[in-house]
């Protein structure tokens, strides 16, 4: 929520994010990659597939919060908690 008030509190990075839709333990899990894989391993790569197909399939589709300026966040939080509330007259 702090990002809505002040965009310089969290820091964001570009990621490719997928949501797993199957699996006994992983259904609904979010999985993110910051970089494309270097290449598919040989058993997973088709004989006629180009070597760099993984790079072509990798598309950034999300900005992921990867850090926070804790000093700015704490200052913002304290100022909100100690603000004067106007009395209803």
Protein model, in words:
The model has no long low-confidence stretch (mean pLDDT 78). The protein is α+β, with helices and mostly antiparallel strands and 89 residues long. The two termini are 31 Å apart. The chain is built from 3 helices and 3 strands. The longest helix is centred in the last third of the chain and has 12 residues. Strands 2-1-3 form a 3-stranded antiparallel sheet, with no helix packed on it. It has one domain.
The radius of gyration is 21 Å
The helix content, as a percent range, equals 10-25%
Order of helices and strands: HEEHEH
Beta-strand content estimate = 15-25%
Shape: elongated
Instruction: Describe the sheet with the most strands.
Output: 3 strands, antiparallel
Terminal-residue CA separation:
31 Å
Please count the beta strands (DSSP E, at least 2 residues each).
3
* Structural domain count: 1
The helix/strand class is alpha+beta
Strand line-up in the sheet with most strands: 2-1-3
Q: List the uncertain runs.
A: none
Count of separate DSSP helical elements: 3
- Average pLDDT, all residues: 78
